[in-house]
Amino acid sequence: MLRRDGDHHRVTGRKYYSTGTAFADFARINVENEQGDALAVIIPVARGGVRVLDDWDGMGQRMTASGSLLLHDVQVFADEVAARDGSTLVGRHCGALRQLHLVATAAGIVRNVVADARRYVLTHGRPVLHSSAPSARDDHFIQQIVGELSAHSHAIDALVRDNAAALDRSADAIEAGARMRTNACSTARSRPHARS
């Protein structure tokens, strides 16, 4: 809960799954104010009252830093608070960008699976039981599996690139729209009103 405290705010609470925060300088936290408005705050993790916990069992994942954040009466300045509205163009764009980061991470994992499969086939693999191939490398069944993994990896990479390009174009369009609105407001303010 974000509450007003003079000319700034205070926040107390717990954020679970604070992925990356243990390695970050800042944390973005979704909060509600006393009126129930959906807001986001971006605060330094070194600020008094912020505790980063290593309480996430990564299930084999390394370096996710997905532990919790404990917030106890943390001071939040006005310029660190922003409206959180997923129905705006910027809100939808940011949501899509976060999803793209996750998919790009998964794409990297798939690339490593392909590299591991190739390495295993070349160094340890044996042909399947009834294969006439002299080595795993020459076994058509193994080639098919590694080929399918590789094709899927290339397809995922292409989708990530295409979606990243689409998000770049949408960011440019959002920025251009903001500039047009600013220019229109400036023009409207600078022109004297006609009297009838």
TrEMBL record:
GO terms for molecular function: oxidoreductase activity, acting on the CH-CH group of donors. It comes from the Bacteria. InterPro entries: Acyl-CoA_Oxase/DH_mid-dom_sf, AcylCo_DH-like_C, AcylCoA_DH/oxidase_NM_dom_sf. SUPFAM superfamilies: Acyl-CoA dehydrogenase C-terminal domain-like (SSF47203), Acyl-CoA dehydrogenase NM domain-like (SSF56645). This is Acyl-CoA dehydrogenase-like protein.
